[in-house]
């Protein structure tokens, strides 16, 4: 299950990780009020289940509170088309109004499971930002990794070694150690399938602030934290998949013309292969 950026940041804040001041607005009037509280100058960010929002026009820096109202009016109720949204785009139901962060440096940090080794992976880079995918493809050596045994969890020495290997400035290592430890605490408590901060901004005064964040939860473990279900936004989901979820059915909408009713991942893949080889599409 996915959640919005503002919800992910609220969770980070509850665990002591710094986030920009601001709040979520469901209409232009709320956006204006939040912008006034921030002094007028703010960032307006469309809240959808997708990355690449900035390149799609979903993130705007405005200088005055009135401009935030205009941007909120433009975004709320519209559909945002990104490289991850699919051809129909995603409905923008709210916008996050935040104070601008004066960024002097950017760090990428994430934790996710590794099914092949039955461990968790922590990834850290001193080169965070919007082009992290390109960095992973062209310069993977700049993203440092650490395998975590789920029995023992993230050990202090592993966190320190990873921070050192990533070349983090010595003056920021202690603060980053705290951020990493708290991220793993969230990851473990809520049975996350991903927790990511990109970028973890190094501000001009030396603070570490989560400028953007993403958290995904393992659907099979949601019963252990029922309060997370309240964070779900069904408007961001495919309608058919939402109906199936309500009936505890695993349903994935594909683009073909043949429906596949299967039991087990291996059988599902074999069925799709047979369907494709016969000239149809699953």
UniProtKB/TrEMBL annotation:
InterPro entries: ATP-grasp, ATP-grasp_succ-CoA_synth-type, ATP_grasp_subdomain_1, Succinyl-CoA_synth-like. Residues 9-54 form the ATP-grasp domain. PROSITE patterns: ATP_GRASP (PS50975). SUPFAM superfamilies: Glutathione synthetase ATP-binding domain-like, Succinyl-CoA synthetase domains. One of its GO terms (cellular component) is cytosol. The keyword Nucleotide-binding applies. GO terms for biological process: succinyl-CoA metabolic process; tricarboxylic acid cycle. It comes from marine metagenome. Its cofactor is Mg(2+). Keywords: Ligase, Magnesium, Metal-binding, Nucleotide-binding. This is ATP-grasp domain-containing protein. GO terms for molecular function: ATP binding; metal ion binding; succinate-CoA ligase (ADP-forming) activity.
């Amino acid at each position: 299950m996915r959640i919005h950026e503002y919800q992910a940041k609220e969770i980070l804040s509850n665990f002591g990780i710094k986030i920009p001041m601001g709040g979520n607005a469901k209409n232009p009037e709320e956006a204006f009020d939040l912008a006034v509280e921030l002094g007028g100058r703010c960032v307006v960010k469309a809240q959808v289940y997708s990355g690449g929002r900035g390149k799609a026009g979903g993130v705007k820096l405005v200088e005055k509170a009135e401009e935030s109202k205009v941007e909120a009016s433009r975004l709320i109720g519209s559909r945002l088309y990104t490289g991850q949204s699919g051809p129909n785009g995603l409905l923008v139901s709210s916008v996050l109004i935040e104070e601008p962060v004066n960024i002097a440096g950017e760090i990428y940090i994430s934790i996710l499971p590794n099914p092949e080794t039955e461990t968790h992976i922590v990834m850290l880079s001193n080169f965070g930002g919007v082009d992290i995918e390109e960095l992973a493809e062209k310069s993977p050596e700049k993203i440092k990794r650490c395998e975590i045994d789920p029995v023992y969890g993230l050990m202090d020495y592993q966190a320190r070694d990873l921070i050192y290997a990533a070349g983090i400035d010595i003056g920021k290592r202690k603060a980053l150690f705290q951020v990493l430890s708290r991220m793993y605490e969230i990851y473990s408590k809520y049975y996350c399938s991903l927790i990511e901060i990109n970028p973890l901004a190094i501000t001009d005064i030396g603070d570490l602030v989560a400028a953007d964040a993403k958290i995904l939860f393992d659907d099979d473990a949601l019963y252990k934290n029922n309060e997370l279900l309240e964070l779900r936004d069904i408007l961001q989901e495919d309608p058919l998949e939402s109906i199936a979820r309500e009936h505890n059915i695993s349903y994935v909408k594909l683009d073909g013309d043949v429906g596949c009713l299967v039991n087990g991942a291996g059988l599902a893949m074999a069925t799709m292969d047979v369907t494709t080889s016969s000239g149809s599409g699953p």
